[in-house]
């Protein structure tokens, strides 16, 4: 499985405690498979990993950068609680720092991984290449997905927040999605701008129209 292969490659680069890293990966899989998750599940993790592979040749220069991006992907939604969405990225970064430290990961990669996880809260990246740009775009690949998959993603997110009344959900979700349309570009890397941008804008406008109809 691709996500396991990428974990193993990152583990070879960081040269941490092999047994400890294996147990850590198993714990992360358990977290990603929690039943309350709709969109933020193992499928999302797999899609982020696949997108990173596509972006790697033109955006990532070193094995160390690659290891930090892969670890960030594994950790970025490891903590996911719909009751306190503003804390998820911070708590996921804290989990990464604590558990990776125990496995002997060098501080350079540890700091880079945690910074990437924390940055996923705002999706506010200016770099056009490098780990920040690649991870930003991979995490947002879903916005450019084929229509059926994008619509499924929207339904999955709504299911995660099924306890939220429609009016409140429309307000909150619109506030999250509209800024992407208002940006000069949804994505940062050249590859994503060329190959994903147009589809993402079509999908976002369609979802914003649907939300407006509900509201």
Written account of the structure:
This protein is mainly α and 215 residues long. It folds into two domains: 126 residues, no CATH class; 72 residues, no CATH class. The protein contains eleven helices and no strands. Helix 9 packs antiparallel against helix 11. The model has no long low-confidence stretch (mean pLDDT 94).
Largest sheet: none
Helical proportion, percent range = over 70%
Q: What's the overall average pLDDT, rounded?
A: 94
Low-confidence stretches: none
Number of domains: 2
Distance between the termini: 41 Å
In percent, how much strand structure appears in the residues? under 5%
Structural class: mainly alpha
Number of helices: 11
Radius of gyration: 17 Å
Please trace the helix and strand order, writing H or E for each element. Answer: HHHHHHHHHHH
Number of strands: 0
Shape: globular
Organism: Knoellia flava
Protein name: Metal-dependent phosphohydrolase
């Amino acid at each position: 499985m691709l996500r396991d292969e990428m974990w193993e490659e990152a583990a070879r680069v960081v040269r941490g405690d092999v047994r400890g890293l294996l147990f850590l990966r198993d714990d992360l899989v358990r977290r990603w498979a929690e039943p309350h998750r709709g969109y933020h599940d193992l499928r999302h993790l797999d899609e982020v990993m696949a997108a990173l592979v596509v972006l790697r040749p033109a955006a990532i220069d070193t094995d160390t950068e690659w290891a930090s991006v892969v670890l960030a992907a594994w950790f970025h939604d490891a903590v996911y609680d719909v009751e306190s969405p503003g804390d998820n990225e911070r708590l996921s970064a804290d989990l990464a720092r604590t558990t990776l430290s125990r496995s002997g990961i060098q501080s350079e990669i540890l700091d880079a991984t945690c910074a990437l996880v924390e940055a996923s809260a705002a999706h506010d990246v200016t770099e056009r290449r490098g780990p920040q740009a690649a991870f930003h775009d991979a995490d947002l690949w879903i916005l450019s997905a084929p229509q059926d998959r994008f619509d499924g993603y929207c339904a999955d997110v709504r299911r995660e927040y099924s306890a939220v009344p429609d009016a409140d959900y429309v307000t909150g979700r619109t506030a999250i999605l509209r800024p992407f349309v208002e940006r000069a570009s949804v994505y940062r890397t050249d590859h994503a701008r060329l190959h994903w941008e147009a589809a993402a804008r079509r999908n976002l406008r369609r979802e914003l129209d649907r939300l407006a109809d509900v509201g």
